[in-house]
């Protein structure tokens, strides 16, 4: 009986404990499950919050890339299609040119580096219309025209506000228009004429009034231009050449040329005096060669010698006279401190007498470079000096140059049938 009672007591005392524990376990599991779900939700929410900006940025990056890719394909295709008709456009600006008519050209190049006949020299193909058409979009940065005719600078160039280089060699251009001073971004200007009947006759007096970036200026063989424009605003100009300005009687002041390093004054036939060189603080090289009246009228040397070749009278030129003006000691001292070639003595070179003629081109050379020729009593070589027409040039320096190139197996391959006289062998 005791044992049974004990068992009953045990039964009576243990059963409620088991039930309570079971209920607590169920509650704990339910709470833990809810907590886990809650934590998972919070964790996922945090991850979403962290990843949302990344996903947005990735989407934007993808969309942007796709747009750029599509734009690039269309820009290249449309620009190439639009500019295919213009072989003189050397570099194209690829833009969205759908429904546009004007080729977005960056670089215009039309040139013949070695005309072979006198007729090509006198009357080269006219490229004015080509330039006007490719300037219409206003994108041109560089223009290079050599041995091609320009009847005018087309007004469409006014749209090219970012034009940086303008190279016009032997173009028969009659005038530089007044609006050319609007080319404010110009950095490089090279104008070269010739002695054919069609020559440049006018440069605007205020051409350089607002070209603050101009660093290179070459005005060559402008024998009918009466006046060189003022240069005082060209504070960043580093190179200046004024050559064969036969109608000019006075060079402009060098005031304001704070950065000029190289100066060439060539064949100033009727420029009796020179501007002072003292403003040219950065000048390192100065050349004054060929015929210059200032070299024999007493201005530079202090002694007037009208029997000098440079001052001998010519039938078609004003007579050179002596002057009492003298170059200052300060200028002499300054020029002696830099690399200077000033007033070579015994100069017998008359640039105009070497101008190409029908005889010196077609008759003596026939379009063949490096051929031996004789002009008058002087031996010469057929050559396209300075990218002009192939002509007989009685200059021993050109002959020596070609001989040296052949000896070193450099330059153009030599032709023994033509250049045996220069040392070329089979």
Automatic annotation (TrEMBL):
Per the record's keyword annotation, is DNA damage included, yes or no?
no
Outline the extent of the WLGC domain.
Answer: 361-425
Can the keyword Flavoprotein be found in this entry's annotation?
A: no
Residue ranges annotated as transmembrane are: 56-74
The record's annotation in Gene3D superfamilies points to: Ribonuclease Inhibitor
Q: Which UniProt keywords apply?
A: Membrane, Transmembrane, Transmembrane helix
Q: Which domain of life is it from?
A: Eukaryota
According to the record, the signal peptide region is none
Q: Matching InterPro entries, A to Z?
A: LRR_dom_sf (IPR032675), WLGC (IPR058256)
Q: By what name is this protein known?
A: WLGC domain-containing protein
Recorded source organism is Globisporangium ultimum (strain ATCC 200006 / CBS 805.95 / DAOM BR144) (Pythium ultimum)
